[in-house]
């Protein structure tokens, strides 16, 4: 039995990577897809940060030609017990009271109130896939997939005796919780060496673990903060893929815009843009975004990279809830409802969904009133 393949969907992880850039100068009226205040629009339009997104190949069966955050399906190798040997020395000391495995389980479990977890992180798995906590396995997945798709590797060289994590978090083995560090460390290995390993990892996910072991690397787990948990909705549209994913989204920050080298099989291009720049291109039909990407980008109305970073860093107890949009089929298109919307169903079966709701109204009229049934 696989660690991440279930009856109705497959589990995956994505990474929202926020890069620091020079502040833009507003030269035109901002375009957003919601009724944000003009002040917020100006802030987003001139923000000094950009979000990395990749355009999926037209050959892909799931969301072809759409722009998405880096990420992909989890692999059994992400849950391998062999990660204990690699991660253990960096997250526990020889004099501490906890074993390497206990230290890894405490690493993120201490960051949630009442021990609540996102559904994708809390479900019981086969014992062979439970040696590594799901919090860590899905972070490994997000880092591995980002490396495969972009060539960006969030990792650092392990140190003997005094490890990086122990230096950053001197009380990590006591009762104090691990200090949240949202700015990621990017691996500075020679480009040729990284590229060789990237090709190996693309061929077989197990090679990511092998690479970390042989190069003495530690995936930068604590730089990834839990952000959201999205479930692909059901659909009755025969032209759409029936694939469904339960995806945990993480967020991390870098203080520059790293070079991206696209892996041509799944993606064709990439963009570093502000949320408002993405919305502008969606509005003029230049690009396509799925509901999760639209929703998450809309939330990112921060004034600067610094305020965005600090907001995430100051909420270590945040835990994601599982969300699923519900499609309303109108005469001239589709409308997606989200939890909190007036007409979102009170009860939703995540496994079978509610199919497609329908309305005799047209989208233009729906947008003018929430009472459209």
TrEMBL record:
EC?
3.6.1.-
Looking at the keywords, is Hydrolase present? yes
Q: Which cofactor does it need?
A: Mg(2+); Mn(2+)
| Membrane-crossing segments per the record | none
Keywords assigned by UniProt, alphabetized: Hydrolase, Magnesium, Manganese, Metal-binding
Cross-referenced Gene3D superfamilies: Nucleoside Triphosphate Pyrophosphohydrolase (3.90.79.10)
Q: Which GO terms describe its molecular function?
A: hydrolase activity, acting on acid anhydrides, in phosphorus-containing anhydrides; metal ion binding
- Gene Ontology CC annotations of this record: mitochondrion
Similarity comment text for this entry? Belongs to the Nudix hydrolase family.
Name by which UniProt lists this protein: NUDT19
Tell me which species this is from: Acanthosepion pharaonis (Pharaoh cuttlefish)
**Species lineage:** Eukaryota, Metazoa, Spiralia, Lophotrochozoa, Mollusca
